[in-house]
């Protein structure tokens, strides 16, 4: 895997304290590097030690090893834990690599030769990862002896046998980059896809999941994206963009909107996905929020790519949450055939890291689930103490107003209902009824 080599690694100053606080005299400690690649450079916003839970005390602590060989033998556990971090990332942000706390003088420390090829293979299997990335992973080593760090890029050639790995040094800069970050915020509708008629219940929907995702991606690629209401040249950076404030937590916000090219004769055409098998029905509709942290040094082109990634991620996660739940319930036998089970749309919440650039991570909860519990779980995965996190659940709090505009599908359906299923008799109605539209619901028609 070879890509164009970035020039420098910019790491937020508070992360140096994170490395110092993790340090022990005798142990090797692995962790995950989170950030973005913008142009020629890496921008690191978070370092997450890999936490495990003590079976006896029920408390978590950082994963530690006595020597590098133990660490490499247990590498699969490190890689699997990295996937948990991936699930919390917004579009445009990635697991950039791995860091290691080493109890040696850094001058004598060589890169830890962990299997980055296997690490990459595991990550790209996730539907949330960029399979076409052009950058190389990072390895950041920090010495507990002389309190110094050293950074490498990792390039591996998967064509040769055995696979060869090359480590090259790259300059890292710790500093304050708080004003270099913005959050791109917007919304889009589920109502984006063409009509499908499928028989077979929820499991049939699982079989066409990738078709739905591909169609959404196609629509995104054919849409126009505006920033604060304007269209910009794709090579322009976001350095001089004016920002807004959203609530008490989100600062440096740039509003984004999607517009789709339409056939003037089909503006009102409605589309839906419908699976019939009885008298029940499932309705999946409403607004999805977009929340993309982005470095101001990036271009409009890169920002749009990050926004598209975020739209695909949020759609993928919500769809998977429903399909998993519905498939499980289809296998459950109920004594009462008329029992109705109601599912509501999973809601996106943001987990704001209050240090440094105030980076936002992302998670999802069903109505009735306490967002605070999601905050606790994310804190364990990201190795973030509670005092350094804030919960932001405002972006999708008012989604019920959208449902009020939908046609009355069934008198038994309540507002905000995502799914109603009846035992052994299921009609799935995934409502994707309009076009990918902007926050205010407008569309631009190109003649």
| Structural classification | alpha+beta
- Kindly provide the radius of gyration, computed on alpha-carbon positions and rounded to a whole number of angstroms: 23 Å
Strand order of the largest sheet: 9-8-7-6-2-3-1-10
User: Biggest β-sheet: count, sense, barrel?
Assistant: 8 strands, mixed
Give an overview in words.
With 447 residues, this protein is of the alpha+beta class. It has two domains: 8-176, Cytidine Deaminase, domain 2, CATH 3.40.140.10; 181-430, no CATH class. The chain has nine helices and 24 strands. The strands form six sheets. Strands 9-8-7-6-2-3-1-10 form an eight-stranded mixed sheet. Strands 11, 13, 14, 15 and 18 form a five-stranded mixed sheet that branches. Strands 12-16-24 form a three-stranded mixed sheet. The longest helix has 31 residues, at 300-330. Mean pLDDT is 76; it is low at 267-283, 332-342 and 400-447. Keywords: Membrane, Transmembrane, Transmembrane helix.
